[in-house]
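Entry, Tuesday afternoon. Goal for today is a structural model of the target with flavin-adenine dinucleotide bound, before we commit to ordering more compound. Inputs were pasted exactly as handed over by J.K., no edits. I checked the ligand SMILES twice against the vendor sheet because last time a stereocentre got dropped in transcription.
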Amino acid sequence: MSYDVVIVGGGPAGLSAALALGRARKRVLLCDSGTRRNAAAERIHNFVTRDGTPPDEFRAIGRQQLATYPRVEVRDLRIESIVGTRGAFQVTSATGTVGALRVLLCTGMIDEPLAIEGFRELWGRSIFQCPYCHGWEVQDRRWGYLARGVQSLHFPLQLRGWTRDVVVLTNGSFDVPEDMRARFSAAGIEVETRPVARLAAREDRLQSIELADGATIACEVLFAHPPQRQVDLVRKLGVALDDDGYVQVDPVSRETSVPGIYAGGDLLSRMQAAVVAAASGVHAAGMLNHELTVELATGG
Ligand SMILES: Cc1cc2nc3c(=O)[nH]c(=O)nc-3n(C[C@H](O)[C@H](O)[C@H](O)COP(=O)(O)OP(=O)(O)OC[C@H]3O[C@@H](n4cnc5c(N)ncnc54)[C@H](O)[C@@H]3O)c2cc1C
């Protein structure tokens, strides 16, 4: 079997790309292995027309709308390898190998949970990465921000837009420069530099943060940006990554360093939100389709 485009990843980026390519009458295979980034989240917010939609429902609607386009196939499959060159890729899963003229990577990112007791369990429930996504529902409560270095200290200042009660935690890992302390003080933000021992919860919701010296800080909501990594497939492909580990693409064409392989969505940058990923998927699909259509129409 051979396709014009194989899309790897069926989140907001891959679904949107498949919609654009289906409407452009390309023969598309969309493969998704099921482990999505927002698996722990109860609802998607800040996506116009879909605000408050559970993530599974979001994906189901996406697939339902793709069913209108007979040249788009959707399969629940993990892609194990991609070999070949532009115009002649072989894409392999557990069920076999298919051919593709182009490949579009929409594989998202993997969040690596921080090694703090309670972090993994509370991620997506009381621990969030983005206040636009989850801040409204918990506004005016006591929020913490788990900072991982001086470079992340600009972030907690914006949290004041949702609550007056913010504490920045350094987890004992770095010193807060005096100028930042002064800005936090002016904004009424507390700074806690002692190491964190564990996150205490009741009924799956954060109640307090226990420090290594036995002290306890009341806190209902924590924001954090744990490290991220690319999925194994992307690492094996050898596409160029930037210094932060995100896939480098041409800013206009969205082609990676491997000719014929394009990328869209979270895997491109830390600017991560479902609607941003959807737009990124459409951008890559549009540019890929333009290039492929011209090639097929002109024979070269
Ligand atoms: C806890 C949490 C809550 C969030 N809440 C919100 C929110 O409320 N609003 C918002 O706008 N954003 C939210 N986000 C961010 C949002 O989820 C992401 O920006 C968005 O999902 C990125 O879309 P994507 O398509 O790039 O990647 P993903 O949604 O992560 O999809 C990537 C897909 O690729 C698949 N895949 C990976 N490797 C392979 C392979 N080898 N073969 C086949 N398939 C593969 C995965 O299974 C996955 O389904 C949240 C994120 C987190 C972590």
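The mean pLDDT is 96.
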